[in-house]
Every structure is written in C-alpha cells, then in structure tokens.
Design brief:
The chain is of the alpha+beta class. It is built from seven helices and 16 strands. The chain has two domains: 6-207, 3-Layer(aba) Sandwich (Glutaredoxin), CATH 3.40.30.10; 227-319. It has a ten-stranded mixed sheet with strand order 5-4-3-1-2-7-6-8-9-10. The chain has a four-stranded antiparallel sheet with strand order 11-12-13-16, covered by helices on one side. Strands 14-15 form a two-stranded antiparallel sheet. A hairpin with a 5-residue loop joins strand 11 (248-256) and strand 12. Helix 4 (143-162) crosses helix 5 (199-207). The longest helix is centred in the middle third of the chain and has 20 residues, at 143-162.
C-alpha cells in the first residue's frame, strides 16, 4: 500500500490547525546554501563553530530557535545574512530585529555570541524596513516540505514581485514544525504561523486584504501567545478583521483542569488609540475534532492532537482613553 504524505492525512481528516504555532523568545536565522541534511546543522556548509554553538545553546536550554535560511542567490553571494529576531518583554506586537551582513558564515557564531553577551557588534546594517517570510522547504527532514513547500516558495516569490512589495523578502527555511500543514510559513517580525496555504491566501496575508474568514483554515497562531490563547486570538481576528493586526496583545491561562480538557483563557489587547480590552473565553475539548494522526511523514507512532472549541467568550474589562476637552 502506498504511503500517504502526513499533510494529505491532515487535510483529509479536516484537522483544525489553530494552536500549533511555536512560542520562541528568539529566532536566529543564518543564511546557508542548500542542500541541507535532515539535521540541518549537520549540513556541509555549516562550520564547526556554529554547529557547536547550536549544540551548547540546546544543552543550556536557551529559548532560541536556530534556523538555516536561503534564497535563490545564497549559493553565489559573497556575504552571509544573519537575522536575529528577539521578543522583548511586554512587546505585544511581535519581535524586534537585528540584521548583519557577514563576510562569511564562519563569522555567524562569534557574532551571535557577542549579541548574547550584549557586546558591541560589527557588520550590523539597518533592519527597520524588511518583512521576512520563511517557507519551510526542508524536504530531507520531511517529504511534505519538499512536495508542497518548494512549489509554494516558487509561486510566492512571483506574487511578491508582481505586487512590487520591495519591503518583503522570502526565504527557504529549515524545519520549524508543522510539516503536516505544508506549505507552512512564518511571517516575521510579527511571528505569526500559517499553513495549508495557496496563492490567494498568501496574497491576503501579504496585503492584509480579502476575506478574513480564510483564517479559519490557514492560521496556525501567533507565536508570542501560549497555544491555547492562540485559539482565542483567532476568534478575535474573525471578529475585528484586518484592524486586529495593528493591536498589541498578551494572553494568559486563568485556570485549567488537570487533563487540560477545560481551559479558562484571557486575552488582553491595546488598540492604537491606547484603549485596552480584555476578553475571557472558555475552551472545551472537542471530541469529534480531536484526532490521532502521524505528526510527520517519518513518525513511527500516531500522536493525540487535542482540539478545542470556544464555547463562550465575553468582554471582561474595557479601559477607554480619556480625550482631553
């Protein structure tokens, strides 16, 4: 019997993809030409000093997600791009960004170390204008990212070019989870995750226009929020529309049962005018939507994928801005 791709299984099961964005305090993105091994940092062009740094950071349990990135020019450029996206405490809108143009990839590890130690850094360039889209094309890690990620990356490049979006860059990326939602991407500096994408939904994400109801099918969640809060955020996106992307937000779990089948969550957001709103919501396990699937093409065992419904949501508090008379 022919083996199915994990993303085909997920789509056929109509899996709800919300609540699958990973919460990372820091993304460190290093330009490195493919091909990449299944373990990306064992790849041919990754120097030993960088490989060792990634290993040490993992052992120290630093909240850093290291990614390899590349575009169509990465194999022939005479410099290496290093991007560091960091979530400041109380940021509420996403990540701050530092960008470096290095002479070669061997300089990545010492530059990252200096950033960690808050020392003065060479090679830094202006990083205020760019939006970086990461598309997982890491086919050696999971077949779906080659089968669906590569064609999507190709089409997405053409869409960005056709829309003349000079402030948007698109990168191939090593694994960041969620293969079964391929094609899957991260939109930085926001830190929002998307999956099951097509060309029309990608245009909507880029331009913040179009039918907001698409988010029911393509939105994995906002990586600055805990996973259960991501479910509440999607409900508020559907309620507030594209205006939501101008708001700052933070969330917390108020209480939950030991088996996590019932959760009381709170999401607080601030509008550009300074007014602050807090919503509370009850999340209840949906037995019919909860699935048992293989989380990746290479998985040996199936995983229980707990899914929730928002059974009740209400405005818990509101603080309006006082306008001076």
């Amino acid at each position: 019997m022919k083996k199915k791709f994990c993303s085909d299984n997920s789509r056929e099961a109509a899996e709800d993809i919300i609540g699958t964005a990973t919460n990372n305090q820091t993304y460190v993105l290093i330009e490195c030409p493919p091909p990449w091994h299944a373990d990306a940092f064992s790849s041919r062009w990754v120097p030993d000093n960088l490989r060792l740094l990634v290993k040490e950071a993992k052992l120290a349990k630093l909240p850093i997600k290291f990614q390899l990135i590349a575009n169509d020019l990465s194999h022939k450029v005479d410099s290496t791009t290093l991007l560091i996206y960091h979530q400041e405490e109380g940021g509420g809108k996403g990540y701050s960004k530092r960008e470096f143009k290095l002479e070669n990839i061997e300089q990545a590890a010492p530059t990252i170390k200096k950033w960690l130690w808050a020392k003065n850094l060479k090679y830094e360039i202006d990083a205020t204008t760019k939006r970086d889209i990461l598309v997982c094309t890491h086919g050696s890690h999971d077949n779906c990212c080659a089968r669906y990620g590569n064609p999507f990356y190709f089409n997405a490049k053409n869409i960005i070019s056709g829309l003349s979006l000079d402030n948007v860059r698109i990168w191939r990326s090593s694994h960041f989870g969620g293969h079964r939602f391929a094609p899957t991407m991260i939109d930085l500096p926001q830190g929002r995750y998307y999956g099951n994408l097509d060309q029309e939904s990608f245009k909507s994400i880029l331009t913040h226009t179009g039918d907001i109801k698409r988010f029911k099918d393509i939105y994995r969640g906002w990586g600055i929020l805990p996973r259960s809060i991501q479910i509440v955020e999607r409900e508020l996106i559907l309620r507030y529309g594209w205006d939501w992307f101008n708001f700052k937000a933070a969330g917390r779990i108020v209480e939950q049962t030991p088996d996590k089948t019932n959760v009381l969550a709170e999401l607080t957001f601030e509008k550009p005018d300074g007014s602050v709103y807090s919503y509370q919501a009850k999340l209840v396990k949906n037995n019919s939507k909860t699935l048992t699937l293989k989380a990746s093409c290479n998985a040996n065992h199936e995983t229980l994928l707990l899914k929730y419904d928002v059974t009740n949501m209400w405005l818990a508090s509101r603080q309006l801005v006082k306008v001076a008379s």
